[in-house]
Amino acid sequence: MPYTADDLAAVLDRLPQGKRDTAFDLVQKAKKWTPSPAQARYIDGLTKEAKGENARPTTQVGDLTAAIALFDKARQKLKYPKVVIQAGDDVIIKLSVAGDNSKNPGSINVTSRDGDWNSRLYYGRIGKDGTFYPGRNADRIPTLVEYLKAFAKEPATVAAAYGHLTGHCCFCLRKLDDARSTAVGYGPTCAKNFGLPWGNEKHSFELPTETEEPEDNEQEPETSWGARI
Question: Is the pTM above the cut of 0.70?
Fold first, then answer.
């Protein structure tokens, strides 16, 4: 039997601070109107979270040193670096670093590829210690942990595989129209940004010793249909 708004009202103080206002609003509205099916599911989910019934087992995906170095290199130039990888048949996920003002700064968010933050599916996050904390959508991808482990071990190789498979850069998603770019899975600009080799050029995504000035006008690129990625 799903939990009701009355059940949620009884455990509001157990929710994370960032979710209490939304939960309180749902409880108040339920006093006047019957919750929609979507609201009822959300009420049930929030109540289970407050009661600790939604806890999902965590998994170690490995040492993130190489992955963090890859992102750290890119953050010298890009405001929102991200990596897109294949996570199963016809399954594409996006990995991005949580910002300094987020709840878990420095962790790697795992989401679906398309849409804005509110419309993407959230599969979970990887902590700096390599622990994967699955989100409620993680069960949609049975092979997710397997691919995250592969990414932690060889981030550049796993990311480049997306470019090989789709003909689009695994970092900015632009179409690869150069044989050298297609061969490595990303273009020359992204190679420099992420410290990766391209053609005869060699770069390194080792942790930098000096911080370069970021570009002030860096914006998140858009897909061909206008959604931010």
Answer: no
